[in-house]
Amino acid sequence: MSVKNVYGLSGIANSGKTSTLSSLIDILREKANKVLLDEQIENDYRAVFLYNSQIIAVSTQGDNVLQVKKHIKKLEEFSCDVIFCATRSKGATCSFLSKKYGSKLRWIENCNIYNNEPKSFDNSEFISHRNKAMANLLFSLIQ
Question: What percent of the chain has pLDDT over 70?
């Protein structure tokens, strides 16, 4: 079976791609019929789930094209129906996904909310809620 849809969550470094996709993995861990793969590799994750007769894969690695290729290759071993993956907003990771998946690829721009600069207030709770809301939006794409 070939991939039907690929969703590239794009954004610059530290824009919350990994956190958002990690929240999606948490949702799928809870709602999936079966977990087929669930791995942490350094600071990133890749996971594959059986959900309502679909094979859904998620990879949080999106900054390095060689690592993106490696993660995607592993996910494809499961004959995924849907893949969610992180990617930068331009450059080699975007080019790789575009060439590999063509019209099956849908881009989703991650909201740019940062918490790595000194602020007059702590916005980490807001960022956490935003990541979870974005993960629920992504989950709705496979319903």
Answer: 90
